[in-house]
Each structure stands twice: as structure tokens, then as C-alpha cells.
């Protein structure tokens, strides 16, 4: 039974407390990068305390100055069943609502993370999109690519032409990074980002693809393609294979093509054995 609680931002003085939580998470990355999370301007980490006992943790990260992505929710297993996760997430949402710079509030949670999904449902965060992380680990198990390589767009003007078709349509979910998709807005597409990203256009000029470097635990040539004919478009896979080789020259051989696929595209993968999959992630959120 918990009678009194306090929620506050965590500080370096709480490092031992979070390390001693019994969350059941082996090698918890939040513990490993704790100091970075509490000192970075892009991240915030809160703790819910019962007396002096840290019993639940959650936070958020800010992307592009306006997207507040909730996350890092974990609770001490000795205190489960008291609604603590809901309480701390609700508190953090209220903090984000008060921040005029934050325009969107959301969370990205794996399909089978039932405790986190229950919290989001209780707090009525709308479900937006389910995406399947798919990393291509064995090209030899894919069909031989056909068609001509797509045209690489070199100028910012050419890239902007395509971005202009999506940046004001917030029904488009754009995977900005691995694990961090967002509804589109102009803030996602700064010139300095577009200049770094590789853009390709098909011969009919009715499709485009983006390839950008990303690194989480692994290194990725992260592909963004917004249609469900990814594996049917002539020349597209050949284009991605060639671009991957360029990425490997720059970032090393342990770099892999990564997609974040909605259901309809996931179901069209020609050979699952060519890929490494994760549990799908479900994006929730809303504009303030």
C-alpha cells in the first residue's frame, strides 16, 4: 500500500536509487546512460517516490524542438498494481502540455508491451500507426532485383519538391529515426537534414525513397518509402543495394538496410528468412 507519493525530475543523486530498482530488466540501458539522460537538454527523466523509495521512472525526449516522445517507463516489481505507471505518465503529459514549444505528445510502444499499452489506453492517447522493424540481413535470400537503378537527386531543390508533397500532411507517419516515427510537419525536414539524406526517384517520377544513416545498437541504412509496393517497384531494391555499398564504405561492413513497414507492406516481403524482425511498434499521440 502506498500512502504518499512525490514525482520530481531525477538528478545525479538518484543514480544509486535507479540502479537498485527491481524492474526485472536485465542490463537496463536507462541505468547505463542515466547521467546522459538527466543532463541532456533533449531528454527528461522523472521519478515517482514513495517516501524515499524510487518506485517508478518515466521520461520523454524532444525531437525537432516540438515533438515530445514519452518513454523509458519502468516500475519496481515490488510495487506493481498500484497504478504508478499511469500516475507518472499522466504527470509528464501535463508537464508537456504546459510547454509552449511542444506541439505534439506521443509514445511508441511495442505490440506486446501490454503494461505500457494499458497505460496509454487509460490516458486515451490515440493510436496512429503500427510499424514492423525489418532489417535485411541476407540479400542472397531475396529475389534477384530487376529494373533500372533509380535516379539519385543531388540538389536541395529536387529533394524539397518531394518533401513538399508530404510535409503538411500529418496523416503521413515519417520514421525520423529507428524507433522514432512522427506525423509529418515542416519541422522534420530541415535543409541540413535533407542535404545529408540520399533521395532517389523512379523513372516515372511518381515514387521516391530516402536512405539515411542511423545508429542505435546496430548501424543502418534506414529506408523511408511511403507506398506499399516496396518489393514490387522495378529497380528500387537494386538502388537500395547499391546505396548500401556506399554506406558500408563510409560506416563499415556491419551496416544493414532497415525498413519500418506497415502491415500491408510487411505482408508482401518475398522471403522472411532474409530479414531480422522485432516485435512491431505502435505509435500513439496527438497534436496539442
TrEMBL record:
<dbReference type="GO" id="GO:0016747">
    <property type="term" value="F:acyltransferase activity, transferring groups other than amino-acyl groups"/>
</dbReference>
<dbReference type="InterPro" id="IPR016181">
    <property type="entry name" value="Acyl_CoA_acyltransferase"/>
</dbReference>
<feature type="domain" description="N-acetyltransferase">
    <location>
        <begin position="5"/>
        <end position="143"/>
    </location>
</feature>
<dbReference type="Pfam" id="PF00583">
    <property type="entry name" value="Acetyltransf_1"/>
</dbReference>
<dbReference type="InterPro" id="IPR000182">
    <property type="entry name" value="GNAT_dom"/>
</dbReference>
<protein>
    <recommendedName>
        <fullName>N-acetyltransferase domain-containing protein</fullName>
    </recommendedName>
</protein>
Amino acid at each position: 500500500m502506498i500512502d504518499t507519493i512525490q514525482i520530481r525530475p531525477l538528478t545525479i543523486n538518484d543514480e544509486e536509487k535507479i540502479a537498485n530498482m527491481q524492474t526485472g530488466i536485465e542490463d537496463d540501458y536507462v541505468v547505463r546512460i542515466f547521467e546522459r539522460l538527466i543532463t541532456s537538454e533533449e531528454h527528461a527523466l522523472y521519478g515517482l517516490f514513495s517516501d524515499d523509495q524510487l518506485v517508478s521512472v518515466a521520461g520523454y525526449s524532444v525531437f525537432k524542438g516540438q515533438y515530445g516522445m514519452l518513454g523509458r517507463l519502468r516500475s519496481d516489481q515490488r510495487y506493481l498494481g498500484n497504478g504508478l505507471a499511469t500516475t507518472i505518465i499522466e504527470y509528464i503529459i501535463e508537464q508537456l502540455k504546459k510547454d509552449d514549444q511542444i506541439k505534439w505528445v506521443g509514445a511508441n510502444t511495442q505490440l506486446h508491451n501490454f503494461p505500457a499499452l494499458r497505460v496509454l489506453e487509460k490516458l486515451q492517447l490515440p493510436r496512429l500507426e503500427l510499424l514492423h522493424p525489418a532489417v535485411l540481413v541476407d540479400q542472397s535470400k531475396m529475389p534477384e532485383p530487376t529494373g533500372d537503378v533509380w535516379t539519385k537527386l543531388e540538389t536541395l531543390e529536387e529533394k524539397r519538391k518531394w518533401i513538399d508533397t508530404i510535409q503538411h500532411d500529418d496523416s503521413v507517419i515519417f520514421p525520423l529515426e529507428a524507433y522514432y516515427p512522427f506525423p509529418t510537419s515542416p519541422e522534420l525536414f530541415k535543409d541540413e537534414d535533407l542535404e545529408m539524406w540520399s533521395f532517389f526517384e523512379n523513372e516515372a517520377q511518381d515514387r521516391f525513397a530516402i536512405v539515411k544513416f542511423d545508429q542505435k545498437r546496430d548501424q543502418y541504412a534506414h529506408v523511408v518509402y511511403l507506398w506499399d509496393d516496396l518489393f514490387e517497384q522495378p529497380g528500387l531494391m537494386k538502388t537500395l543495394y547499391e546505396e548500401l555499398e556506399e554506406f558500408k564504405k563510409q560506416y563499415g561492413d556491419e551496416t544493414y538496410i532497415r525498413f519500418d513497414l506497415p502491415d500491408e507492406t510487411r505482408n508482401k516481403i518475398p522471403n522472411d528468412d532474409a530479414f531480422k524482425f522485432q516485435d512491431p511498434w505502435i505509435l500513439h499521440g496527438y497534436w496539442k
